[in-house]
Amino acid sequence: MKVFSRLGLGLGLMGLMACGAPSDPQETDSRQSEAAVALPTSRLCSSVPCLPNLARAATVTVSSTTGSSPTQPDTRWAIDKALDGNRESVDGAFGWSSMSSGAESTSQWIRFDFGTQRSVNEVQLYARNDATFGTVLGDGFPRDFVIEVSADGATWTPVVTQVNQPTPTEQLQSFRFSTVQTRFLRIRATRLDSVSGSYYFQLAEVELYDNPGQLTYTFSDGEQAEITLDNGDASVSEDILVGEATELDGLFVEYQAYINQVGSAQVGSTDGVSASSAGINTHQRCKFWQVGCWKRKIIDSRWPNNTVYYEFHREVSDANRQAIRGFITDWNSRAPVQWVEDTSRFSRVMFKVKNLSNACGNSIVGRSGLPQKIRIDPDCVTQRTVQHEMGHAVGLIHEQQRCDRDTYVTGIGNDSNNRKECAAKYTTFGPYDYSSVMHYRSGTAVSPQPLGSVGTSGSPGGLLLGCYDRLGIHKLYGVAGGPGPTTTDAAVCNLSRNAAVTVSSTTGYSATQPDTRWTSNRAVDGLRDSNSTSYGWSSMGASSAATTQWIRFEFPFERRVSRVDLYPRNDATYGTVVGDGFPVNFSIEVSTDGANWTSVVTRTNHPRPGGVQTYEFTARPARFVRVVATNLRAVGGMYYVQLAELEVF
């Protein structure tokens, strides 16, 4: 069975960071989500600010600015370029740079005057990343520095002291400290970094925040959404599905009240380098609000056109890129949702390989509408981990979270990644799949293996995207039929292609001279459309509709079967309508010995089909499956059973 959020059916985006449990060596739990909440449609995107960046409403002075001389600064490196909301160093706006010095132990500083006492508890420094005068991210980032505050601009108190600061490997370097009331804040470097033989203090962007840390909203069902404000962004606790927009009004009113309180002193400010927008940072990373604007343009949280666009973080090695691309190629050959490498799309997935403490990977569930990430630990760049997280990104959650999981597995915890989900907001279908790539390797399977389950119960957790994972994606995205008939699917998913096939009869000149275009092997050749060389299988013509005809599959060993797909002929060689020869009355039967049969599907007066007909039933062990027709459809004056393809899952 696949479990996924019922996306696009009136619910908001699932605020879920999906990963693994600590007991699973492939994955572990994560306490932070990148998912954001849907904005009530009554709000206007353009009028809602993000968490205020206090630096942009302050008067800013610096110790020096690089240039031809102190009176001729280089405008590409002027202080306003470090407060323009652009966190990247680009030609024409690199950020701020001090004058060069011949000595490493030179003091350079940048100072902010808020004009009045303000609460501050976070400084974010964005390292330059243009490599114009160097080749390494973080050129010019100070080695030793202090962040200090003052009530009068004369007496200073340090709140952060950094010694032997390493060259940044991430552009954002965030420094949190206990909230202080201050009018002035200064970042003072005492040991500089060498850039092309001289010493500088250089930053792409500086942001200052009064960060409340966390807000809480309680929904009508008693669940609480914890809104964490961090690094200028906001995120929702990973185990909360944020509900309908009407329930969110209270949350947004609460957050808006905070914004108004913090931002009121800045409104109308004319001091400082930036007097616009009341000092509000409107950069796209303030996605708590921006995602609401985008969600108004998104039908649901599935990926449009069944396509996920992706890119790699710049620090992902060539070897890891090659491995991940290989896993994506395998996925694309077997699943209906395709992954396409394209950095130009706003809504895309970034693969990032980084050390995750006691974790192998994490991803949000479904499409956020904004850039989102799949994080993989360097020791876990495996097909299981990568395709597991890809499954989350397209909308699948963990197999062991289905409501009736206690029938199939015990010893599963109840944390956010294992909690049983029984609410109507989750949709499930198909058998419980022990071999799903979305199943954890923890827990103990119920013995003997219950009906209604597939896969190997003794070793849960598949190593790659499996049959029912792919069928779950088909179901979620509304794609008719099962996976495409590749060699891998033949072995893993469509059992009929590895079965011995026998039939009651085959059309032809006589019982000993069958028409080779209509023999039983044509119904299991992977061609779902009838064509002039392979129509499918057809029984001999009969003069009476009340004639019994059948096709039988024998597997090499006992399998667990839960679904049969019948593809009608669609060639119209002897007729004019799709579905000629599709049986009117028939049953699908299973057997473990070929002698004693159990009917799992029965149909009477079946209408002429226009496409694939899928029949699902409780998974059960079977070595034999047969389709038995007892009332046939007329084709050209005679009665036949005719099918283009049969697939068994």
Automatic annotation (TrEMBL):
<dbReference type="InterPro" id="IPR001506">
    <property type="entry name" value="Peptidase_M12A"/>
</dbReference>
<feature type="signal peptide">
    <location>
        <begin position="1"/>
        <end position="20"/>
    </location>
</feature>
<dbReference type="GO" id="GO:0008270">
    <property type="term" value="F:zinc ion binding"/>
</dbReference>
<keyword id="KW-0482">Metalloprotease</keyword>
<keyword id="KW-0732">Signal</keyword>
<keyword id="KW-0862">Zinc</keyword>
<dbReference type="InterPro" id="IPR008979">
    <property type="entry name" value="Galactose-bd-like_sf"/>
</dbReference>
<feature type="domain" description="F5/8 type C">
    <location>
        <begin position="490"/>
        <end position="649"/>
    </location>
</feature>
<dbReference type="Pfam" id="PF01400">
    <property type="entry name" value="Astacin"/>
</dbReference>
<keyword id="KW-0479">Metal-binding</keyword>
<feature type="binding site">
    <location>
        <position position="392"/>
    </location>
    <ligand>
        <name>Zn(2+)</name>
    </ligand>
</feature>
<feature type="binding site">
    <location>
        <position position="388"/>
    </location>
    <ligand>
        <name>Zn(2+)</name>
    </ligand>
</feature>
<feature type="binding site">
    <location>
        <position position="398"/>
    </location>
    <ligand>
        <name>Zn(2+)</name>
    </ligand>
</feature>
<feature type="active site">
    <location>
        <position position="389"/>
    </location>
</feature>
<dbReference type="GO" id="GO:0004222">
    <property type="term" value="F:metalloendopeptidase activity"/>
</dbReference>
<dbReference type="InterPro" id="IPR000421">
    <property type="entry name" value="FA58C"/>
</dbReference>
<keyword id="KW-0378">Hydrolase</keyword>
<keyword id="KW-0645">Protease</keyword>
<feature type="domain" description="F5/8 type C">
    <location>
        <begin position="45"/>
        <end position="211"/>
    </location>
</feature>
<dbReference type="InterPro" id="IPR006026">
    <property type="entry name" value="Peptidase_Metallo"/>
</dbReference>
<dbReference type="Pfam" id="PF00754">
    <property type="entry name" value="F5_F8_type_C"/>
</dbReference>
<protein>
    <recommendedName>
        <fullName>F5/8 type C domain-containing protein</fullName>
    </recommendedName>
</protein>
<dbReference type="GO" id="GO:0006508">
    <property type="term" value="P:proteolysis"/>
</dbReference>
<feature type="domain" description="Peptidase M12A">
    <location>
        <begin position="296"/>
        <end position="481"/>
    </location>
</feature>
<dbReference type="InterPro" id="IPR024079">
    <property type="entry name" value="MetalloPept_cat_dom_sf"/>
</dbReference>
